[in-house]
Specification:
Cytochrome-c3 Hydrogenase, chain B; 2 domains; 15 helices
């Protein structure tokens, strides 16, 4: 057996994962990737006793399982490895991260550059100031640098454009200016509440999506008993996730309208975001949903008053939103800026391993709600929105269609909440914060945030404490898509392309 298969939100003993020689590890990954339904969830390394252990987690979107395989290298004799990126370009970012953190040389890797300059990086001589930017030489070419300090309310990142006149031939994106060490903090902050608060702050606009992955995984590692009333917790959590999706999508449509000087769309879409996030504040006291999800119980019951309030909000939102989206997507001046701008192909998105919106807008059917369902999506036959054009228009229309689809599924969830004849989920139990997790376990938790696939991996030691914690935000895959989208476009197209992806800096700079 070359790999171990598990499902989303399951755990197994770490000793059940096959430990392969690197040649076998390498060849089995190549074999698995021959199937188009396979993509990489996470590939990382960590020190365990006297070995550097490599863990690769590959999702099979058709069979709805996850293959895990590993390789070990003596800590005292770290060696170079053959790069998988040459044959599977989507793995480039994972090998680069391993190389930066542990000094492993991946031979023939085409782009073995630092990812983050994290504080625990292996080579402290590598800094932001000596990052090896790609260069295009010639008398008719020039470079334009943007960042790392931006004028807007945005996080630090440097964009280096290589141009011929106004045409961009290459864009290189360098992030990592504020690496916070969140993954390490999970190990140094052992209290469950501290870890939960960390999860809500991985990427602020995905507080619910990231925290949902965390609490689902912890409930697996704690072997939480889930009685018949747990279906209500799954409903509440899934409802919150879709509200977050609507709020961010409609806010992004507002910002995209602003970038093409459509002020009515900017104003109306921006105003429509407010009642959605205000409802989250009414529900849990925070407009981003912080404090709403906790391990093992439901801290904020969804009362009849909240139910009635949300029904009214959805009705009013629907009426105004449908009129505004019709105006926006039929306005020639908007369509002129959106269509065929920053266009990407299905093959490009498959090659770089894109996930979420960035994949689906170019015809790649990749949505965790369908392929690896979690919480209440296990009870819904979810059908993702798939578009083909791969341009700014497709990314805007993707948001529009997902808002409408989320609205319809929220109404289904509200109906189920009203009809379910089960007791309210269990209340706070202080023992949750004192008990130990199952020892020597690995668990993988996937959610589909509004940007796309979020993956959390937790590994426990012999004492039942966290030994290693690994987070992957969808932006880890998708920043490359933004760089590709600018090729052979005018540099003035960068702002609308950047907004159309709206990728996370802090989610990348963990």
């Amino acid at each position: 057996m070359k790999s171990k298969e598990i499902k989303n939100n399951e755990s197994i003993s770490i000793y059940e994962i096959p430990v392969l020689k690197y040649d076998d590890f390498y060849n089995h990954i190549l074999l698995l990737f021959k199937k188009t339904e396979i993509h990489c969830l996470s590939y990382f390394a960590y020190f365990k006793e006297d070995f550097l252990t490599f863990i690769c987690c590959l999702a099979n979107d058709e069979e709805k399982n996850i293959s895990i395989l590993s390789h070990e290298m003596p800590k005292s004799n770290l060696q170079s490895l053959a790069s998988l990126t040459l044959k599977i370009p989507a793995l480039h970012i994972f090998e680069r991260e391993i190389a930066e953190n542990f000094g492993i040389k991946f031979e023939n890797h085409p782009w073995l550059k630092p990812v983050r300059y994290s504080f625990e990086r292996e080579d402290r001589n590598k800094t932001m100031n000596n990052y090896p930017f790609f260069k295009i030489e010639g008398n008719d070419t020039h470079e334009v640098g943007v960042g790392p300090i931006h004028a807007g309310i945005i996080e630090p990142g440097h964009f280096r454009f290589s141009c011929h006149g106004e045409i961009v031939h290459h864009l290189e994106i360098q992030l990592g200016y504020q690496h916070r060490g969140i993954e390490k903090l999970y190990l140094s902050k052992p209290h469950l509440l501290q870890q939960t608060i960390l999860s809500e702050n991985i990427s602020g606009d995905s507080a619910i999506a990231h925290n949902l992955a965390f609490v689902n995984m912890m409930e697996t590692l704690y072997n939480t008993e889930k009685n018949v009333s747990w279906i209500k917790i799954d409903l509440y959590r899934s409802l919150a996730l879709e509200l977050e999706r609507i709020a961010i999508h409609v806010g992004d449509l507002s910002n995209m309208c602003l970038d093409v000087a459509y002020q009515l769309g900017n104003a109306v879409f921006g105003a429509l975001r407010t009642p959605v996030i205000n409802f989250l504040q009414l529900w849990c006291g925070n407009r981003f949903g912080k404090g709403l999800l906790r391990v093992g119980y439901n801290p904020h019951p969804f009362t009849k008053e909240l139910y009635e309030k949300l029904v009214i909000i959805l009705e009013e939102f629907d009426l105004k939103y449908m009129e505004m989206q019709h105006r926006t997507f039929s306005l020639p001046s908007v369509l002129n800026r959106f269509q065929k701008c920053g266009q990407l192909s299905k093959m490009q998105m498959q090659t770089i391993g894109a996930v979420g919106m960035s994949a689906r807008m170019a015809g790649v059917e990749r949505d965790i709600r369908q392929s690896h369902p979690f919480n209440y999506f296990q009870h819904i036959a979810y059908e993702p929105v798939i578009l083909e054009n791969g341009d700014v228009y497709a990314r805007a229309m993707m948001r529009n269609m997902e808002i409408q689809k989320s609205m319809s599924y929220i109404r289904v969830m509200l109906t189920q909440i009203y009809r379910l004849n089960v007791e309210e989920p269990q209340k706070y139990n202080p023992e949750i914060y004192t008990k130990k997790m199952n020892p020597n376990q690995i668990s993988i938790s996937l959610t589909e945030g509004w940007r796309g696939e979020i993956c959390h991996v937790g590994i426990t030691n012999e004492e039942g404490n966290l030994l290693h914690y690994k987070i992957k935000d969808p932006s880890m895959h998708n920043w490359t898509a933004l760089a590709l989208a600018l090729r052979e476009n005018e540099i003035s197209d960068f702002p609308i392309n950047n907004k159309s992806f709206n990728l996370s800096y802090c989610g990348h700079d963990l």
